[in-house]
Amino acid sequence: MPDVFLSYAEEDGDTARRVASLLQAQGWSVRLQQAGDDAEARCMVVLWSRHSVNSDQVAAQAEQGRARHALVPVLLEQVTPPPGLRSIQAADLSGWDGAADAPGARQLVADLAGLLGQPLPSGRVILPPVKVAPRLHPAWLILVALGLLLAAGLGVITLWRNAPPAPSAAAAPLRYADSSAASGAVQPTMPPWARIMDSVAS
């Protein structure tokens, strides 16, 4: 289905072809009216002139577009459209020389863009956006590494503090060697304070 169906009187064929060229240059597909043509399209652009306001075919096509909320009227001359088709503001191309930057031409393009959306340039393909993972700055990488090292160090310290104490051998009582033993062997003797206590007790 074309984007635009262009409805006009036969006498306005030259202007209609210039309008079609303008719209095609913007990227829309345009179908020019022909005898007995089906007016199916995404929107209906009707060129009103002193010829087309008296055309039953143009009026019927304009009504079809209005009923579908897809009518875009254009004035080629300062004329009044048929009853029931006057409520929509029309772009004014009266005296238009075909320039794309003329106010009426810009208004027509804006009206179509509001109805159809912005056209795509020929050959352009829209791809879905690609999600790219955010890249970390080198400074952030250093901070992350330091944080991991700190966390590991704290974990080691916590395990060391919570570890149960290792069992140790009972301390043996201290004995003094008596070198005066006859046998020459080192013999355990009582410490001095024990001797004193023993003499007091006796």
Low-confidence stretches at least 5 residues in length (pLDDT < 50)?
122-132, 176-182
Write out the strand line-up for the largest beta sheet, numbering strands in chain order.
2-1-3-4-5
Number of strands: 7
The residue fraction in helices comes out at 25-40%
Task: Summarize, please.
This protein has helices spanning 13-26, 56-67, 103-116, 138-162, 192-201; strands spanning 4-7, 30-32, 43-48, 71-75, 91-92, 176-178, 187-189.
Characterize the structure shown.
With 202 residues, the chain is an alpha/beta fold. It is 37% helix and 13% strand. It contains 5 helices and 7 strands. The model is unreliable at 122-132 and 176-182 (pLDDT under 50).
Element layout with pairings:
Blueprint: E1 4-7, H1 13-26, E2 30-32, E3 43-48, H2 56-67, E4 71-75, E5 91-92, H3 103-116, H4 138-162, E6 176-178, E7 187-189, H5 192-201
Parallel strand pairs: 1-2, 1-3, 3-4, 4-5
Antiparallel strand pairs: 6-7
Entry keywords:
202 residues; 5-stranded parallel beta sheet
